[in-house]
Design brief:
- This protein is mainly β and 178 residues long.
- It has no helices and 20 strands.
- The strands form two sheets. The chain has an 18-stranded mixed sheet that branches.
- It starts with a strand and ends with a strand.
Amino acid sequence: MKTHYITKDEVNSNNLYIGPDLSDFDGNIETQENLGDVVFNGDLVAKGYILFRNLSGIRASGKVRSDLSIYSGRGIDAIDIQAGRIESYWGIHANNRIVAHEIKAGGPVIAINEIKVKKDIRAEGEVFAKTISARNVYTSNEKYFYRRFERKPMVVCENLVQGTKVYDKLVILTIKNS
């Protein structure tokens, strides 16, 4: 499978990607380190994996999708995010939904409508969506836990379809809706 490497030459002064079309790339997509948040007007789609190295992040006005996995050395921000495994050094934010086999984030995981994960969500920040479906939802970093000395819930959703809510490594409750 071929691999496209995004370099500094394919990013303008506003960090907008100006290289070849990657809205339906038949292969893997990788970046060099320290690109900052690379902005895509539209979709970023790979038949293979998407790997944004240390201090390189993804911002797309459309969807970000990989048939294998997405890894970002910063954050991921898009309308829809879909992959087998999604991992981000910082947070993950989708204006609509996130679909994955598993998610691991060094910050919050936020989707306005839905987070649908077959296995676990592990976040060092809050997990927020209107609907969450996951085996387990883990949040564990106290730096996001206290805001002005108020203890706030780390997992926020109107409808937990399946799974276990886990706060700061302690199981609080299990909700199973049919």
